[in-house]
Structures are given as C-alpha cells and as structure tokens.
Amino acid sequence: MSEDPTPVSDSPFRSEPSARDEAPQFVLPLVVRIEKAEPPARTDALETAARAVLTILADERSAGEGEWAGAMRDWQDARIRKVVRRARGAEWRRAEALPGITVTGKSAEVRVFPPVPLDGWPKDLARLQVSGTDLDDPEPPVDADPAAPVLWLNPDLGMSAGKAMAQAGHAAQLAWWELSDEERAAWHEAGFPLAARTADPARWSELTGMGLPLVRDAGFTEIAPGSCTVVADHPALRREPHGAGRAASTRSE
Fold first, then answer.
1. What integer pLDDT is reported at residue 249 of this predicted model?
2. Tally of CA atoms within 13 A in the half-sphere of 88 that contains its CB
3. What's the CA gap between 228 and 225, in Å, rounded?
4. pTM of the full structure
5. Residues 199-221: pLDDT tens digits?
C-alpha cells in the first residue's frame, strides 16, 4: 500500500540510485481485520496502525540479539516500506497464527509482522488483498488532546484508509526516531497514546513549518510524488520559539 519514508538525501527523485536502493529491500506487513458485518472506524484504524508500528519498534525481540532484530535492521537499512492488507474470518485466523503482534483499538484490530523480503511474503499474507480498505467514521472524531501526540493528515489529499494507515505509521515512526531514550520509554509505558486527525486547511501550512517530523510521499501509489502527507506533532518535539529546539525530520517515502 505504501513505501515508508527515506531521508531526503536518499530521495527516490534523485537521478542516481541511493545506498538504500542498492540494499536488499524489505517490507513491514500490517494486516487490518475488516469483517463485513463490523468494519472498524477509519480514524481508529489509522491510530491502531500507528500504535502497531510503534509497538514492534519498541518490542524487545526487535533489539539487540532479539529474534526479529536482524530483519528490523535490514528493513531500516533499505527503504522502510510498509504495506497494509486486509483480512477477515479464516484469513485473519491464519494471519494471527504467524509471528507478529496484534494491537487492538476501540473497534480496530491490526496485526504487525516482522519485516519480510519484498518478494518473499509468507503465503498466508501474500494472498491477502491490498484494496478494499475504504473505511468510514460513523461519527466525527472528537477534538484531539493538545497535550498528546497527534498525527495530522494533509486535508488536501484523498487517501484510501489503507494508504492513510501506512502514512500514519510512517509519521509515528519518524517521531519515534526523533525522541530520546527517556521520551521513548515514557511513551511506551503510557501505551503509545496518540490521535490521528485531518488538519484544518488553514493550519496545515503552519504545521508543516513547525520543525516537526513530516512525511513526504514518493508517489508510488495514489498520490503525486513529493506530497506532504502527515505531520507528527509529538509534544516532546515541538520547536521552541525563535527556531530553538531540534531540527525537523523530513522524509520521502
């Protein structure tokens, strides 16, 4: 569904291949459960996908000598791709039987799996559909808590739920990379609270200029190359007045 961000210096728009292009390519699979009778709400699916990405990044199996650590390192050494697929019924049960982590939201269930080679998906995941993840919110989402992390989506882009889920995961990962170890631990211990919301059109340009982690899309699916898709507004990363604070993290995917 989507390719994850890469550093601007390794942009896919460069005329020559980058080091990330030359590395073996891996993908982080995400599967959302969509039952016909009870599909999840769109916003909850986006938030649950973002938490799933953070959960596998924080998992002890992804670090050091953990069983997923090698795959996680290989994935992050190349272009950090994510693909969202959908499953229901027996498909979901087969997906749950594979090594991974299921994250549950209010109505959504998303299972994240350790990275796999781009052309080496497990058959029970490869057979799942990418399309068909168009979800709705039965009621408008409540206003986001300004004291909590918010993933702000570009109001001018129309993205399928699957594409938006991947983009929300990208933004959450960029925020994770920018945090200190102490800030990561605090977010993890709190259960990765976050909200995904579409920004007000009048505020979008302000958000993209605040020095916060920003996802730019490579244009492989659905939207134009170079489109800014999501800003990760984590309180710990907000720039101080007069340009003080951390530098912005801008990535192309």
1. 52
2. 11
3. 9
4. 0.86
5. 999 999 999 999 999 998 655 56
